[in-house]
C-alpha cells in the first residue's frame, strides 16, 4: 500500500506537554482568519479516497498489526510487524465484499467478518459471514458458511487463546437464534460446530460470561413483555429473573454488559436522570448495587472490560468529540499527556496488547482526517503508521466549530458549522446537511469528507443535531418521537434562520443536501418550504414512508415493529405517512432536486427511488438523477463517490453558485 509508511516519529512522553511540535499531517486547528483569497480547489479524488485505518487491529501479544485492504474488487488483509512496521504477508479473503470487522482469536488467528448485498425478491439484503486466517501458516477456514441465514457473523465470544468462538445464529428465518460453538483448531476448511444453546423460549438475544458460558437471554413476547432468563452455572437450567411490561416510551432499557464468571454479579447500563450509567447488579436477586461509572450530562457510549481479568478498563462518552476515561491511573496519565501534546485533536487509543506493551493510537480532528500511530511504552516512542486520507495531507481544510441555536419552541439545538477558508464570514451560500438515522445517531466535531468537500467549493455547511438525535439524553430523543417531517424539519429551518440573523448566511442562497434520512429531509424541505431553499440533493433518501416501513419491518421482531412504527408516527391523531412523504407530495415541487441511489441498497431500497421517479412523471415535474448499479447504502468504490461529488458540485454550481453575488434583500445590522 502506497499510503503506508514505515518511518518512525520518536516521542518522549515526558516532554509531551512542553514544546513538542506535531508533524505536518497533524497540525492543530487554526483560528478563523479574515477573508483573503478563496482556498484552492482540492481534487475530488482526495475526498473520495479510501482509508484502511478503520480496520487496523493489534495482536494480543503486540507483535502484529492487521488491516483490510481493497484492491479493485478484491478484499485482502495485510499483516505488518508492529515493531518495525514492515509489511509481512497479504491474504486474499474475497471478491465483491466488504470487511465489517477484524478481530484476533489468540495471537496467531485473525477473524474477518465479510458482507455483501444479495438479491431478495425485489430488493437487496446484506449477508455476512466469518473467515478465520492463521497468520503464520496462511490457512483459511470458513465459520458458519453452511447455515442458510443472512447474518452469520454475530460473534458473542472469542476464546482468548483462539481455540473456539461462540456465535448467535438463526438456523432458519422463522426461529429464534441458537448459540453454536465453532472449533477454530480443526484442520477442516469449514469449522465444525456444536449447538451449546438451543433456540429456547423464543429468546432473541444471548449473553455469555468471560469463560464462554451462556448465562442470560432476552425474550420479547407478543403481549409486549420483556423477560430475562438467567442461569448461574453451566449446568443450571435457565430461569426467569425479570418479567416486565415493556414501556414503549423508554428507549434505553437496562442492558447487561458484563457477567462475572464466578458469581451472579453483572455490570449493566441503565438510565439515570435520562443518561446511561454503569451499575452493578445481582442477576439472581435483581438487587442493584453501586454505580460503577457515570458522566454527568452524557451517555456512556462504550465500556471495555479486560478479556482476561474481567476488570473495567475504560469507558467512552461523547461531548463534541469522543472522550476516554481510563480506570488505570497510568493509562489515564498517558491519555492526558497525548491530549496535551495534540490540542484540539481527538486522541483515541484504538487497540492495545494485553500487557500494554504496544498500542495503536488514532489522532484526528474536524479539519484533519487523522493518522494512525503505534506507541511502544518501553521505548517511549510514537511511530507514524498510516494516514486516513494521504492526498489531504497539507491541504487547506476548513475549520469546524461547535454552535448552538434556539428552535422555535425554545429547545436548544446543538450543531456544527464549517465555514469556507479565505472567504469573509458574511452572506455566505449555505448548505444545510442533516445526518441520517434519524434516531440513534448524531453528528460530532470530527472530520467528514462531504463537509470538507462542500466547504472547499465555497459553501458554509451546517450540521444540525435536530430533536431525536442521540447523545443528549432521553428527553431530547423523546422530542423527536412522531416528528419526522415536522418538528425535526423545523429544527433545520430554525438553524438557517439563526445563521441568517448572525449575518453569516445569505437567505437567498440556501440548499439542502443529505443521505439516507438526511436525503429525505433535503427532499421534503424544498417541497415543504420552497420559499426557503433554492435546491436539494439526496443520496439514498427515503421518499415514501409507508413502503419504507414495510421494507424495514422484516428485520424486526414483533416488538421492534411496534416500537419503530410508534417512533415514526407518534401519538398524534390523524397523522398519515403520505402527508410527509416526497413521493406522495411531489406535485408541490417547484425547486430543482438531484436524487441519487444505489441499486443494491438493502436499507433504503432502490424501490424508494423508483416510487419518486414514477411520481415525478405522473406529476410532470423534473428531477436530476444519478444511479449507481453496484452500490448499496453508501459507497464501496471511490470512483463512485467521486462521481457523486462531481455531480453534486455541478448541480450546486448551476442552482446555487458559491461565487454568485449576495442576494440578501434585508441585511441584519
Layout of secondary structure:
Layout: H1 44-48, E1 57-58, E2 64-71, E3 74-81, E4 87-95, E5 98-105, E6 109-120, E7 123-134, E8 140-143, E9 155-158, E10 164-169, E11 178-183, E12 193-197, E13 203-208, E14 214-220, E15 225-230, E16 239-245, E17 255-259, E18 265-272, E19 275-282, E20 288-293, E21 300-305, E22 312-318, E23 322-326, H2 329-341, E24 346-352, E25 359-365, E26 368-376, E27 381-387, E28 400-406, E29 412-418, E30 428-432, H3 449-456, E31 460-465, H4 474-478, H5 487-501, E32 505-515, H6 517-528, E33 535-539, H7 545-552, H8 558-569, H9 582-585, E34 593-598, H10 606-619, E35 624-628, H11 638-655
Parallel strand pairs: 30-31, 30-32, 32-33, 33-34, 34-35
Antiparallel strand pairs: 1-2, 2-3, 3-4, 5-6, 6-7, 7-8, 9-10, 10-11, 11-12, 13-14, 14-15, 15-16, 17-18, 18-19, 19-20, 21-22, 22-23, 24-25, 25-26, 26-27, 28-29, 29-31
Describe the 3D structure.
The chain is an alpha+beta fold and 669 residues long. Helices cover 17% and strands 35% of the residues. It contains eleven helices and 35 strands. The strands form eight sheets. Strands 28-29-31-30-32-33-34-35 form an eight-stranded mixed beta sheet, with helices on both faces. Strands 1-2-3-4 form a four-stranded antiparallel beta sheet, with no helix packed on it. Strands 5-6-7-8 form a four-stranded antiparallel beta sheet, with no helix packed on it. A hairpin with a 4-residue loop joins strand 26 and strand 27 (381-387).
Amino acid at each position: 500500500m502506497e499510503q503506508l509508511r514505515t518511518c518512525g516519529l520518536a516521542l518522549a512522553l515526558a516532554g509531551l506537554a512542553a514544546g513538542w511540535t506535531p508533524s505536518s499531517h497533524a497540525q492543530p486547528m487554526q483560528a478563523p482568519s479574515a477573508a483573503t483569497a478563496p482556498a484552492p480547489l482540492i481534487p475530488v479524488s482526495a475526498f473520495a479516497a479510501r482509508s484502511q485505518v478503520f480496520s487496523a487491529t493489534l495482536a494480543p501479544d503486540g507483535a502484529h498489526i492487521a488491516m483490510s485492504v481493497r484492491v479493485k474488487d478484491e478484499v485482502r488483509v495485510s499483516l505488518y510487524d508492529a515493531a518495525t512496521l514492515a509489511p509481512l504477508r497479504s491474504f486474499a479473503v474475497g471478491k465483491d465484499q466488504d470487511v465489517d470487522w477484524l478481530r484476533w482469536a489468540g495471537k496467531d488467528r485473525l477473524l474477518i467478518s465479510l458482507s455483501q448485498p444479495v438479491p431478495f425478491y425485489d430488493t437487496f439484503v446484506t449477508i455476512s459471514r466469518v473467515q478465520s486466517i492463521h497468520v503464520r501458516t496462511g490457512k483459511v477456514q470458513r465459520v458458519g458458511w453452511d447455515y442458510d441465514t443472512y447474518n452469520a457473523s454475530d460473534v458473542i465470544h472469542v476464546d482468548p487463546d483462539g481455540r473456539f468462538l461462540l456465535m448467535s445464529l438463526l438456523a432458519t428465518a422463522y426461529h429464534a437464534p441458537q448459540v453454536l460453538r465453532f472449533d477454530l483448531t480443526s484442520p477442516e476448511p469449514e469449522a465444525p460446530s456444536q449447538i451449546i444453546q438451543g433456540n429456547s423460549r423464543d429468546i432473541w438475544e444471548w449473553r455469555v460470561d468471560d469463560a464462554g458460558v451462556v448465562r442470560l437471554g432476552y425474550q420479547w413476547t407478543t403481549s409486549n413483555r420483556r423477560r430475562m432468563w438467567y442461569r448461574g452455572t453451566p449446568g443450571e437450567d435457565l430461569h426467569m429473573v425479570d418479567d416486565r411490561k415493556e414501556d414503549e416510551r423508554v428507549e434505553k432499557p437496562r442492558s447487561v454488559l458484563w457477567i462475572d464468571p464466578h458469581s451472579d454479579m453483572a455490570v449493566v447500563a441503565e438510565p439515570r436522570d435520562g443518561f446511561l450509567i454503569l451499575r452493578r447488579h445481582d442477576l439472581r436477586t435483581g438487587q442493584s448495587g453501586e454505580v460503577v461509572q457515570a458522566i454527568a450530562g452524557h451517555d456512556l457510549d462504550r465500556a471495555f472490560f479486560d478479556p482476561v481479568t474481567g476488570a473495567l478498563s475504560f469507558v467512552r462518552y461523547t461531548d463534541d468529540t469522543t472522550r476516554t476515561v481510563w480506570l488505570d491511573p497510568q493509562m489515564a496519565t498517558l491519555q492526558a499527556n497525548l491530549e496535551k501534546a495534540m490540542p484540539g485533536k481527538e486522541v483515541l487509543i484504538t487497540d492495545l496488547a494485553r500487557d500494554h506493551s504496544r498500542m495503536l493510537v488514532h489522532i484526528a480532528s474536524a479539519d484533519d482526517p487523522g493518522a494512525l500511530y503505534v506507541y511502544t511504552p518501553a521505548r517511549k516512542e510514537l511511530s507514524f503508521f498510516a494516514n486516513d486520507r494521504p492526498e489531504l495531507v497539507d491541504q487547506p481544510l476548513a475549520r469546524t466549530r461547535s454552535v448552538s441555536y434556539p428552535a422555535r419552541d425554545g429547545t436548544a439545538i446543538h450543531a456544527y458549522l464549517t465555514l469556507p477558508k479565505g472567504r469573509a464570514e458574511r452572506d455566505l451560500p449555505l448548505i444545510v446537511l442533516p445526518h441520517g438515522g434519524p434516531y440513534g445517531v448524531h453528528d460530532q466535531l470530527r472530520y467528514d469528507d462531504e463537509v470538507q468537500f462542500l466547504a472547499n467549493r465555497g459553501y458554509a455547511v451546517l450540521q444540525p443535531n435536530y430533536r431525536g438525535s442521540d447523545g443528549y439524553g432521553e428527553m431530547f430523543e423523546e422530542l423527536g418521537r412522531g416528528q419526522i417531517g415536522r418538528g425535526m424539519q423545523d429544527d433545520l429551518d430554525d438553524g438557517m434562520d439563526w445563521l441568517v440573523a448572525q449575518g453569516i448566511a445569505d437567505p437567498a442562497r440556501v440548499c439542502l443536501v443529505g443521505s439516507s434520512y438526511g436525503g429525505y429531509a433535503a427532499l421534503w424541505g424544498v417541497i415543504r418550504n420552497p420559499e426557503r431553499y433554492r435546491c436539494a440533493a439526496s443520496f439514498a433518501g427515503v421518499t415514501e414512508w409507508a413502503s419504507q416501513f414495510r421494507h424495514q419491518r422484516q428485520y424486526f421482531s414483533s416488538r421492534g415493529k411496534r416500537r419503530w412504527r410508534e417512533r415514526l408516527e407518534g401519538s398524534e391523531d390523524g397523522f398519515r405517512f403520505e402527508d410527509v412523504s416526497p413521493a406522495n407530495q411531489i406535485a408541490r415541487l417547484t425547486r430543482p432536486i438531484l436524487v441519487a441511489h444505489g441499486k443494491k441498497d438493502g436499507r433504503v431500497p432502490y424501490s424508494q427511488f423508483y416510487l419518486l421517479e414514477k411520481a415525478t412523471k405522473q406529476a410532470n415535474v423534473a428531477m436530476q438523477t444519478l444511479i449507481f448499479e453496484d452500490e448499496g447504502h453508501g459507497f464501496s468504490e471511490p470512483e463512485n463517490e467521486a462521481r457523486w461529488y462531481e455531480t453534486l458540485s455541478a448541480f450546486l454550481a448551476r442552482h446555487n453558485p458559491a461565487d454568485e453575488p449576495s442576494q440578501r434583500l434585508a441585511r441584519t445590522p
